[in-house]
Predict the 3D structure of the following.
Amino acid sequence: MKFRPLHDRVVVKRIDAEEKSAGGIIIPDTAKEKPQTGEIVSVGPGGRDESGKLIPLDVRAGDKVLFGKWSGTEVKIDGTEYLIMKESDIMGVLTGEVARKKAA
């Protein structure tokens, strides 16, 4: 199944949290918090202003982003969990070394 978000919504796949702490302690699944970082899978065409002009989104598919703890709506598509949220729920785009480290 393919899914295309509408308006100013984006589809985000969470980036899994670290399995170990910085000190080397293995963190069990029950103690892990859901990660607040993810990779954008798909974006909508954008929102519209008062005159009806289309305003494109600032984020693109493949961007690594940081979002709020309670942002978005969790959905499962073809057995994979995603978040659907508005672009305004995204706090920022992770760039450079931080994005590569989070994705690894």
